[in-house]
Amino acid sequence: MNYEDVEVDIVFISNCIESAYNGHNYLKVANSGNFYARLERGIYSYCGSKGLGIERKSKEKLITIFPKLIYRYHNFEYNGYYYIMSAGKWSRLKKY
Question: What is the pLDDT of residue 32?
Fold first, then answer.
């Protein structure tokens, strides 16, 4: 596996959210179990302790939700790459 070091900051995360909201890509955050939150084409879907859910949320609300999840679980998937934080540094790995 070839991990590349990358810069991930709030601006990059906001751009990912914007792109996924407008339908160009998807953004997914998962914990180590089966729980996840996903944004694709403006649709927010999740699988959590209360089951599956699909909601339409405003872009402003999503910009507050996803950074919290990303910094909590230290990973996300975007545009065919896994982004993982380890030892305070972000790396990415091609999904396929």
Answer: 75
- Whether 37 and 46 have beta carbons less than 8 Å apart is answered as yes
The model's pTM is 0.87
Residue found by looking up tokens 């599956």 in the block: 52
Spatial separation of the C-alpha atoms in residues 40 and 50, rounded to whole Å: 21
User: How far is 93 from 37, CA to CA, in rounded Å?
Assistant: 20
| 92: three-class secondary structure by DSSP | strand
State both tokens at 60.
């402003």
Say what the pLDDT of residue 68 is.
Answer: 94
Residues 6+ apart with CB under 8 A from 9: none
Low-confidence ranges of the chain (pLDDT < 70): 1
Tokens at residue 80, please? 């065919």
Q: What angle do CA 66, 80, 65 make, to 5 degrees?
A: 5
